[in-house]
Batch of 2 targets.
Target 1
Amino acid sequence: MLLVARLSFSIKPLVLCSSYPRISQKHFTKSCPCPLWSSSFSFCLQKLHRSPTCPSVAPFSSHCSAPSMATAPKSTPEVNPLLQDFDFPPFDAVKADHVIPEILPNKVKFMLRMGQSKPFYNAFKAIQESPEWPTLSDAQKRIVESQIKEAVLEGVSLEDDKKEHFNKIQQELAKLYQKFEENVLEATKKFGKLITDKKEIEGLPATALGLAAQTAVSKVSSGHENATAENGPWMITLDAPSYLSVMQHARNRSLRKEVYHAYVTRASSGDLDNTEIIDQILKLRLEKAKLLGYNNYAEVSMATKMATVDKAEGLLEKLRTASWDAAVQDMEDLKNFSKSQGAAEADDLNHWDLNFWSERLRESKYDINEEELRPFFSLPKVMDGLFSLAKMLFGIDIEPADGLAPIVWNSDVRFYCVKYSTGSPIAYFYFDPYSRPPEKRGGAWMDEVVARSRALLFTSFCVGLLFNP
């Protein structure tokens, strides 16, 4: 349930809602020390339906994926769990149609109102122009300057008509970003190659065969409930664990080529074609840049960074120049090694050959086999080592706290508490380490679940850590 991973129940925006009453301790659940109280989240969303003066709350961030809009029901259910009072996020009850279309547009609208807030902007400008400005530390000045810059980039200085056009662009971009990621996810899920002859996947390690057999059991509608790593059948997909295993270990070059082409051409044709979406994104980004007074979107992106477009391009050229000879030599080494192994493609290595022969060369030169290293880096051992390192470096303890957050979006998700050495809690985090191709996009990310807020008396912090390797 990837959607829940995206829901960032941030408390910070609620401070901006002027009609929101001061929170007192009596509102908190006294029997539970966990800070995941989010009644205020639903308050502002409910307030939105009654009064246009209070902005809506942004429940999730724009860089993570959600379940496909194409498969989500079009009608919003009568009871939306995100609009109810709760002590813990109701992850088991949240569905795609609870967010789309009710909350997603309101999230963008609220973030625009916050970013274009004249009171905020004027307050930071007053700090910058005050007699006390020279007495502030560099870090404090950096915060103020960054807030002013971000407000300008959010359109705070635009005239009314231009601001309205800017806001329309932002709303449209949010929809396009969402649709782009959905199409990629759907295209990834759509591909599946069933293999019954083990010779076709010769070279794949035992773990990869086990994963492929497990996928065959779960993905194929019928007839393969008894698939095993040893006897198959095996299902190859475009999810990272399956894709990378084929690229690195499959001796079948035609299989590598087929899977590679499927991977790099995802969402480029048919109903899931992202071509037009990309064109629209580029067009709207340029319009946005022009409205803000920049020549292109790259300049907008660099405005909040230490680099400039010219410096970034200069660095890339320096890297290219410095690495060119070494890269050419690496290719020669691969060609010579593959030729020594009798590879027919030695003189014509292609993209789908590089990972395979790089892995073989590494094994030959350094006698390193990743499969033999796996037992030493099992998840429990890695977690124990990571927590021990954190304790040694920062003097903190990280302990399981599943009982404090019993409702999660998948049974594999764990909940941890970060504590001072004295035992008092500092923060909490959800940990979701396993690949679930049908509902999680590739990669790894972190999202805020509950933010600190002095105004709302939240002194702890909670995030979600998600992986889909």
Target 2
Amino acid sequence: MGFFDTLNQARTQVYVISFVCFLCPGMFNALNSLPTAGPAAQEVKDKQNASLYFCFAIMGLLAGGLNNILGPRILAAIGGTGYPIYAAAQYNIFKVQGPKGTDPITDAANTFSIFSGAYIGLCAGMLWAAQGQICLTYPTESQKGTFFATFWVIFNLGAVLGNTIGTILSWGAGPEGYAMNDAMYLIFIVLMACGSVVAFLIQPPGTIIREDQTQVETPPTNVLREFAIFYWLGQAGGAWVLGNMFLDNTKYTRTARAWTGVYLMVGTTLAFFGGGAAFEYTASAKDFVKIDAGTDFGRFIGPFILYVCYGLYDAFFQVFTNYLIGAISNDSETLSRYAGFYKGTQSAAGGLSWALNGFVFTGDKALTSTAQFWVMVIPCAVSLIFFALFTKTFVKDTTDENPEHGSSIKAH
């Protein structure tokens, strides 16, 4: 039985992912352990690795869900692409500095280096998520330690090979010579690129047979659960964009910023809920076929973007409403009353919606998804009128704390 005939066996799949990591993060460890040409190159490398690990941390939160949707083959293949780009960025720095490593590093080379660090961070998160699934779920319970040890040995042999290559190619440089050279970088880039190619040997989890002849189970993926984190990321990103970039942009007066917020709310209400209405009526049609993100990602991407936009909209609504409340006064006692009233009203409406679903619209009286959609949209649309009226009436460039005595605070 040849190697390719055993690709659906658990041990073979561990070997495959081991060699992907041998070629990608294994060689990466070797490359990172080799010296740079000087302090300037080391400074760029430090920035490159800082962006790497920050993005790695972010993707570490997301990659598990992506792996459950796309599968380990796609994730590992994409994940492997970051490593040769990272090495290419370091090679670019090496070339820019010249043969003696003393020429100044250009802004373009520095930018490419930081980008490559961010990209490999995202890729590493994806690759290690795929690796975790294969090494931890494919062995039987009595083999988990052995399988992972096998992976770890092969993976680290990549660093051994990489350092061996570096030692051989720089052997004749002498004590004053530079450790790195063109051939060394090119070998690292080619070997790392091969990692993504090897990843295509990874088989779908549902086809894998363990050594006790049981099949790896692949339960149906709950797409909403896997992608809920993107909704909350949309919330976080939307809050920062509106609050920091628009509403607190001191290049413009506070009234101008507030009206910008009104226009943004009008535009996003029409765009996001217009898209939502189109999808709602499409999904309510009798001939609508449910979307399977794993097999029909092209149909899934539109509703997914819409889902993230709903997170953005919620953040926009909350940030803008609180911004308008803050425009009324700078007095802590006054604002605490308004803020409490706002959240209390919001909670009462939320409680009413749950009560209507739980006690009134039940059984045969249950609202259709289309009716629920419009119950959500209409109050948001009506609120735009009140946003505009409030902005026109209460938002001023100067907040009068005590009009009777003429004291005021300039808005910034």
